[in-house]
Design a protein that fits this description.
With 183 residues, the chain is α/β, with parallel strands linked by helices. Helix content is 33%, strand content 26%. The protein starts with 5 loop residues before the first strand and ends with a strand. Helix 6 crosses helix 7. An eight-stranded mixed sheet has the order 3-2-4-1-5-6-7-8, sandwiched between helices.
Length: 183
C-alpha cells in the first residue's frame, strides 16, 4: 500500500518580510495543528524568533538548517525518519532558489501551498535590483501577501510586478490591524 504524501506548506520571502509573524500564530493555534505532527523547517533565522515551548505544546518540531548546503533530500529524509511528521511547514530563505527546495523535497512530500511574503515598502527596490530572485519566488507561488501597506503605497506597481510573472497568483495587501484587502 502506497504511503499517503506528506503535505508541505511553503512560506517564502526575503529577510524581514513577515514570514515568522505569519507562521508562529498558525502553528500555535488548534485549527492547523490539531491531530498533526508538524515539522517546521527553518531556512533562515531572522529578527523574529519562535517560542519553542509554545510550538512544543502543539506537537510542532522546529528544525533549523545551517545554510543552503544542509538543504538536501538526504537531510530531509533523516529528519522525516526521526520525527515522522504528518505535515511540514518550510520557512524558506528568499535568497535561495526555489528549485533547490523542490529538488531536495523527498518523493513522499507534496508541496500543497506556497505563499510569498513581501514588504511593500522595499519590494519595488528588490524587483529593480534582484529581479531574478523576485521572479523565482513568484513563478510557483499561489499567493503573495504584501505587508506593511500604507494608504499611500502604490498598489498598481506591486500588482504589475506580480502579474509580469503570472496571471493566477492571488495578491493580498496587508495594512495591519486586521485590514487585509484582496487585489
Amino acid at each position: 500500500m502506497a504511503q499517503k504524501p506528506i503535505p508541505v506548506y511553503l512560506i517564502c520571502g526575503f529577510l524581514d518580510a513577515g514570514k515568522t509573524n505569519f507562521i508562529a500564530p498558525m502553528l500555535t493555534g488548534e485549527e492547523f495543528t490539531e491531530d498533526e505532527r508538524t515539522l517546521l523547517v527553518i531556512c533562515e533565522e531572522g529578527e523574529e524568533e519562535y517560542d519553542e515551548a509554545a510550538l512544543g505544546k502543539h506537537n510542532v518540531r522546529p528544525i533549523y538548517l545551517d545554510g543552503k548546503e544542509a538543504l538536501t533530500q538526504e537531510k530531509l529524509l533523516s529528519i522525516e525518519k526521526e520525527y515522522h511528521p504528518t505535515q511540514v511547514v518550510v520557512e524558506y530563505n528568499g535568497m535561495w532558489q526555489i528549485d533547490d527546495l523542490f529538488r531536495a523535497l523527498p518523493n513522499d512530500w507534496a508541496a500543497v501551498q506556497e505563499i510569498t511574503f513581501a514588504d511593500s515598502q522595499t519590494y519595488p527596490s528588490y524587483n529593480a535590483n534582484m529581479r531574478s530572485l523576485v521572479v523565482d519566488k513568484l513563478k510557483t507561488c499561489d499567493a503573495v501577501m504584501f505587508n506593511r501597506m500604507t494608504d499611500g503605497t502604490d498598489k498598481a506597481e506591486l500588482h504589475k510586478i506580480v502579474r509580469s510573472v503570472g496571471r493566477i497568483t492571488d495578491i493580498l495587501y496587508d495594512y495591519g490591524e486586521d485590514r487585509v484587502e484582496p487585489d
